[in-house]
Write a structure and sequence with these properties.
five-stranded antiparallel beta sheet; six-stranded antiparallel barrel; 7 helices; alpha+beta
């Protein structure tokens, strides 16, 4: 860049020297032209230089910032999140309580049953996973081997029995009532009787010299019955042998499965099922916890409202509570941020009077009724620091960051690099010395100006910050 500036300077000096002899009235106009040319040249040079930032991967913590003044403990009103029937009040007015102690609850019987069912299911799935990983015992394998040998023996017995039944049926078919017929097809004859020996009638005057005996005799009166019995025996044999063979195949497969080592795929499937069930259990337990009120810290109860059996609503204070030995801050959170604030979230507190130190607190209550200030809508939020420090005095101004979300191992870029265009979020990416516009899906933002990128970019890409001029293509 110094090289180009020296060039400009040299050109301007030469031009100035060359116009010393020009009339004075043209000097002002020429000076303007020189300034314009120089500006254009510098602008073109500057537009070819970009302020770049790299897409990085890491963790982002989204926080809501606010300020407030330290107060000594005051009453905290505890309410249920949803309407429901009050089934338990576990404390009395003036009673000391410990952190996490159950104070009151609505009807949780349905969710209690779901929790028990889910826990039993998870234990069963874990047992199956352990069995899959550990494999079957030698005793179980031996029992499977014995079972396979037994079904093989059964197959042999069934085969023998069915062959006997088929053989008998076939013999009966062959023994269908025999009948001798003339080979020449004569119709005037007296048939001989067949009963072990062939006996011709003594009074017969027929001149038939050749007789035919069909075995089986398809014209016999019992042939159809015998034939049907034979065909039924064949079908029964085929079905019985097929079933016996299927049982052998089943027992063979079971034995092979018990002897085979567990596959990584099968283990992954079982692990995924356990994880899914545990995640669902957490959701159910969270729903159940919304029907219960716990002491946010050690302290004492000042007042109990509501009777067992009564239906209570979210705007009804059930327990009035004062923390013991804690510090309290009341914050005004603006309406577009209050939706991210939830009871139980962690907050970090810093004081100008105590530099380089952070104190941990938790959100304990959020007012349901808004506060109007300067035309904006706020909701008063109370946080408690449970470990008081003698350096912290009442009235001190505190800077508070409430953690509302955490994203691990995600891509992120400076928030200022993200632009709005036609309802879409875009960034400028430098690829092969050219600017490429890419659409992105932003996620959470942290307090130092970084935004999560859920899709649209890859780690290491070079992003042009939005406040840098971009040359026209």
């Amino acid at each position: 860049m110094i090289y180009y500036l020296d060039m400009i300077k040299e050109k301007i000096i030469n031009l100035y020297n060359s116009i010393l002899n020009i009339k004075k009235k043209y000097l002002y106009l020429f000076g303007i032209i020189v300034v314009i040319i120089s500006s254009v040249f510098l602008l073109q040079f500057n537009n070819s230089t970009y302020n770049l930032v790299e897409v990085k991967k890491g963790s982002l913590v989204e926080e809501v910032s606010a300020t407030g003044n330290v107060e000594f403990p005051t009453k905290i009103d505890l309410r249920f999140k949803n309407s429901g029937r009050l089934v338990l009040v576990n404390v009395k007015d003036g009673q000391n309580v410990s952190k996490g102690q159950l104070l009151a609850k609505q009807d949780t019987s349905y969710l209690d049953a779901q929790v028990l069912e889910m826990k039993a299911g998870i234990e069963l799935q874990k047992a199956k996973l352990d069995q899959l990983i550990g494999g079957y015992s030698n005793e179980e394998i031996t029992l499977s081997e014995i079972a396979l040998e037994n079904v093989k023996k059964d197959y042999i017995n069934i085969k023998t029995q069915q062959e006997t039944l088929v053989s008998n049926a076939y013999k009966n078919l062959l023994n269908s009532t025999p009948e001798a017929l003339p080979s020449g097809g004569q119709s005037d004859y007296t048939a001989p009787t067949i009963s072990g020996n062939i006996k011709f009638p003594s009074t017969s005057s027929t001149n038939v010299t050749e007789w035919t005996i069909d075995i089986p005799n398809k014209k016999a009166s019992n042939y159809i019955t015998n034939n049907n019995a034979y065909e039924a025996a064949l079908k029964t044999q085929a079905s019985a042998l097929s079933s016996a063979q299927s049982l052998i195949d089943q027992k063979t497969a079971e034995l092979a499965l018990k002897k085979a080592p567990a596959r990584n795929y099968d283990i992954s499937v079982y692990e995924a099922q356990v994880d899914q069930a545990e995640s669902l259990l957490q959701k159910i337990e969270a729903q159940r916890n919304e029907l219960m009120i716990f002491a946010p810290s050690s302290g004492f109860v000042t007042k109990i409202n509501g009777d067992v059996g009564e239906t209570v609503s979210p705007d009804m204070t059930i327990v009035s509570f004062i923390p013991e030995g804690s510090l309290q801050l009341k914050l005004n959170i603006i309406e577009d941020k209050i939706v991210d604030i939830k009871i139980g979230q962690e907050a970090k507190i810093t004081f100008d009077a105590i530099p380089n130190e952070k104190f941990i607190a938790k959100v304990v209550s959020i007012d349901l009724v808004e506060t109007i200030s300067g035309g904006s809508v706020y909701y008063q939020t109370t946080i408690i620091c449970e470990k008081p420090d003698e350096r912290i005095k009442s009235g001190m101004t505190a800077n508070v960051l409430i953690t509302t979300d955490i994203s691990e191992d995600v891509l992120y870029i400076p928030t200022v690099a993200i632009q709005n265009k036609d309802g879409k979020k875009i960034v400028q990416v430098l690829e092969n010395k050219k600017i490429v516009i890419k659409e992105v899906d932003p996620g959470i933002k942290n307090s130092i100006g970084m935004t999560e990128i859920k899709s649209g970019l890859s780690e290491g890409e070079q992003i042009v910050l939005s406040n840098i001029s971009v040359p026209k293509k």
